[in-house]
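re: ur question from the group chat, yeah i did fold both. here u go
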Amino acid sequence: MASPAGTATSPSPQPSPFAELVKGPSGLDKVVLRGLRNCSAEVCLYGGQVTSWKNDHGEELLFMSSKAIFKPPKAIRGGIPICFPQFGAHGNLEQHGFARNRFWTIDNNPPPLPLNPAIKAFVDLILKPSEEDLKIWPHSFEFRLRIALGPGGDLSLTSRIRNTNTDGRPFSYTFAYHTYFSVSDIRQVVGFSPFNLFSALPQPCEVRVEGLETMDYLDNLKAKERFTEQGDAIVFESEIDKVYLSAPSKIAIIDHEKKRTFVLTKEGLPDAVVWNPWDKKAKAMQDFGDVEYKHMLCVKPAAVERPITLKPGEEWKGRLAISAVPSSYCSGQLDPLKVLQG
């Protein structure tokens, strides 16, 4: 395993027209997955991180900051960083753990994992702790990650984490797929009614999240105080950083302007984090543009409230599948696609 500041060396994926190991503009190795028509995904071996996902029109679906730093040991701002062995900032570990700024290796001989035979574009990665990692988190593990691009352009990430401690000790961790979505202007705007120029009325929200209504959440902006979501959808007019507990397996992000709906399906990940830094925090981040918060939204399938505990030899699996479907928007409902009931 290369050190975070080193240069990764990794075998190429099995020869395939659907997966190719190339050198990115930053000099970091990445695997390009190619689906039907113009669908594609790019996976950087640094961080095991999806840095691009495009639909069949070649449109980018993930947000990547224009100021993202592709230079170890800095984590890459955007795409889908992997948060392990912790989500958040606790103890002596860096925020969101170390998996997102380590070099992963291509695994050409992974243990069997069911795969739809129609899926041809995928890559298997593996991460094991270095000696330096063991000093800050003294547990031996194998983290296997399969990233797959479906025939319809859907993207899936399947994580398998195994406790390989030989001293009989269990370990516990929290986890998240820190998914950055590219959206149209996220701000809820207020306009004027054409019938009454003196009354300001809220216009339809360009971006909203559905599926988390009535859920309890921990508000990280209010010392993790617990509340219950009251609205019929989540809309955005200020900074948000909430952990929704026992969230449903399906969540939808509806983008009215782009007439697009992201559907997230999660397994083994009970929680969901919704985050946007808004203007003040955006300006305070070195690797984030001052106004880029307007066009990004993080909805992160996660295991946060209750850490996952593995005994030696035990394995956990968590999966995220994302599809981007055309949709129209009317009164907070998807029409004609009722994706959350699908």
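okk and heres the other one u asked abt
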Amino acid sequence: MAKELINPPGTEEIYKNWKFSQAVKVGNTIHVSGQTGFGPDGIPDDIEGQTRLALQSLERVLKEAGASLSDVVATTVYHTDMGEIGKAQSVRDEFFKENYPANTIVGVTALALPQLRIEIQAVAIIA
């Protein structure tokens, strides 16, 4: 099976400079790179804002690949502060309302940029 690199408009510099795709689609499976709370206006100071941006980015990458959040079967969420899981979960509930994907939560000491507090990676399967 051929793999298709998924890089929505506006992510070209990430592909070029950081040398990774936002997602890779193989057959009906999409592996989405970790999405963070980095947006067009920078990085919000709060976990809710960062979580919302990360999930909006995830949604955008999936759409570019021909999928949606309802196709997500698993997520891995990286937190720099495990005490913020509840706040992040409240935002996640806005995006995943039912048929919840499998989920793994991992505490880490740092992410790619010091201001980042959350990163969300996902696997989706288009039915």
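fwiw on the second one: The beta strands are 3-6, 23-26, 29-36, 72-79, 102-107, 118-125. The longest helix spans residues 47-64. idk if thats what u expected
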